[in-house]
Amino acid sequence: MSEEFKLEIVNPEKSFLAKEDVSEVVVPAFEGEMGILKDHISIISFLKPGIIKIFSKSGNENYYVEDGIVEFKNNNLSILTSTIFNLAEMNKSKQQDLLKQAEEEANISENDDQSKYLVDQKIEVLRSIN
Amino acid sequence: MASLDDLKKRIASVKSTQKITKAMKMVAAAKLRRAQENAEKGRPYSEKMNNIILNLSNGISDKKNAPKLLSGTGEEKTHLCVVMTSDRGLCGGFNSNIIKKAKRYFSKILEEGKELKIITVGSKGNDQLKRVYGDKIIENISFKESKNTNYFDADKVGKIVIQKFEAKEFDICTIFYNQFKNVITQIPQAQQIIPLDNKGDENSSDESYEFEPDEDEILSNLLPKNISTQIFKAMLENSASEQGSRMSAMDNATRNAGEMVDKLTIEYNRSRQAAITKELIEIISGAESL
């Protein structure tokens, strides 16, 4: 029996990625990284800034996301996100841009605790990409 | 009767107008295809989003403490209307249709003695509304610089709306836009986004989900995103409608210009013929009198 399931990543503008031969996906869920394998229980969760790791037959891929929602149901994993970049295509200047943006955001003092936490996360992840 | 020279000038000017409208039609047709594609590509996101929210709101145990974005403030005193129009004109009834729909809604609200606040997206709507409802417009947003409809613009509008909601500036929010049906038909829509209008789609799956963290937290995180998504959807529909509307308007204009050229050409030929005949008569009668 195969150990594969379907994955679809959608962003508001288009269907970003669709794969049918995924064996494992690790998503940066809000309460910690979460690995999803086949026959996982139906779950809804949302993401914090981090790296989505996709393991599939056709190769492994890494994506940087800033936010999103994950839904897993009947061996279909849907990830809805507004900001996603393929790490393989991410170059230094792009990463620096995002980092600068995040740092500016962090300097806004009126943020509440949660958004502060998210921005800090973002900065940390972006720094680690190097 | 206009002189020959005048007619010639008019024919030339109508012809050049026709060239412009024809070019605009062609551009609109090309843009329409892209806008339509974008609208179709954007659909899965908003559909999935809706589904998840539906599942979540069904799963919520304590309806009374549900997030305010879902259940409303419990009052209906202040209405916020987001009127979405285009930034450019020459697109037939596109803008006036939205404005008409919005104005009808405005007068209904004002009759009921409720407070009205307006946000206009797109400069054309602002131009038309500020004459009558100028004091009600609290914000005017325009995305003239952005070439394509993108999510960041929608998110900006969404954030403004949510900010105002959290500051308790309004109770109910409605967005106005044109839904794209086909090139000739666009339907002006009024969609309530706060509180969320779950039109009894009870047939959603009863499947139990595991939530991490719990429903309330996910929901309060998700609902603001949904506002932006809905606005983005409206923007996509709007841009497809705008191009469709412009295309058919420019098609009509091109045809009308063609008819006008035909009519003017006939008039031109007649008066030229009349002038020739007149000259001939003059020559003949001059010769006869000798």
Characterise this structure:
With 130 residues, chain A is an alpha+beta fold. Chain A is 25% helix and 45% strand. Chain B contains six helices and six strands, in the order H-H-E-H-E-H-E-H-E-E-E-H. Chain B is an alpha/beta fold and 290 residues long. In chain B, helix 1 packs antiparallel against helix 6, helix 3 runs parallel beside helix 4 and helix 5 packs across helix 6. The model of chain B has no long low-confidence stretch (mean pLDDT 87). Chain B is elongated, with a radius of gyration of 28 Å. Chain B has a five-stranded mixed sheet, with helices on both faces. Helices cover 62% and strands 14% of the residues of chain B. Chain B has one domain: 3-Layer(aba) Sandwich (Pyruvate Kinase, Chain: A, domain 1).
Offer a quick outline of the entry:
The complex is a heterodimer of chains A (130) and B (290). Chain A is α+β, with helices and mostly antiparallel strands.
